[in-house]
Specification:
The chain is α/β, with parallel strands linked by helices. The chain contains 10 helices and 12 strands. The longest helix has 14 residues, at 225-238.
């Protein structure tokens, strides 16, 4: 068993948020029982995720997307009330780490993916208040269709592409999730391709105007990497079971 306060301290040190201007509170969001025997990780604290955590008998749920965000209403009603009721009733602690889990150099959604994909010469990319969130790197000269296949295989998600750059890709940048606007940063860096999770209408002409290849692999799919890596890390480091709750989300 592990004390909740020790779990919070461990995660806060592992995934520090010092200096980050984030969109949500990082760390403990809902306090549950004081002793932890089983953990679980997931991408988002959806109602389905919380129900899966209850079914798995987890004492603490650690997610990338929590349930409290800037500009949210202070009123606790509807689905938010249901989520909080279930967490409190079952005494399940909810912890969330947003940008800290994007940027971690070994467990994060960006650096971990780049390492898994075999990128070399990894460097920080996409700064927020002076703190890098993403990563850029190099690969051997590869046809962009082949890069598309590799990304789709890794993320297990179809890619939405705008092939505005060179047919042969050697340099890439990555920011997971809803970071399609960072294509502007990637273009300034002069990389051949930018990879993220989501996309919107302006990205299509921008890719061709800036001469860069754009790949979107799904917001949720690109942010499974960190929670999955974190689950394995916590099992080894804390000697507690910690399954990754694989909740389907095609967006």
């Amino acid at each position: 068993m592990l004390r909740l306060k020790d779990l919070c301290q461990y995660l806060d040190e592992l995934l520090p948020s010092n200096g980050l201007s984030d969109y949500c509170p990082n760390g403990l969001q809902v306090e549950g029982k004081t002793s932890i025997g089983k953990l679980a990780t997931a991408v988002s604290a959806s109602l389905e995720t919380i129900e899966a955590a209850i079914e798995s008998r987890a004492d603490a749920l650690i997610v990338h997307h929590g349930i409290f965000w800037q500009r949210d209403s202070y009123v606790i009603q509807g689905v938010k009330r249901r989520k909080l009721f279930l967490l409190i009733e079952q005494e399940i602690s909810l912890l969330a780490y947003h940008l800290p889990l994007d940027m971690h150099p070994k467990l994060g959604n960006n650096w971990k993916a780049a390492q898994d994909l075999g990128w070399t010469d990894l460097q920080p990319f996409a700064y927020m208040n002076g703190i890098p969130i993403g990563v850029k790197g190099k690969i051997p000269p590869t046809n962009r269709e082949k890069v598309k296949e590799q990304l789709e295989h890794y993320y297990q998600h179809a890619a939405a592409c705008a092939f505005g750059g060179p047919e042969t890709i050697q340099t890439l940048a990555l920011v997971s999730g809803g970071a399609y606007k960072s294509i502007a940063d990637a273009a300034k860096e002069g990389v051949d391709a930018f990879i993220t999770g989501n996309f919107d209408e302006p990205v299509w002409p921008q890719a061709f105007e800036e001469g860069i290849n754009f790949f979107a692999l799904g917001h949720s799919a690109t942010e499974r990497v960190g929670p999955q890596a974190l689950a394995k890390h916590l099992e080894q480091a804390l000697h507690l079971p910690c399954p990754f709750l694989d909740i389907h989300n095609p967006f």
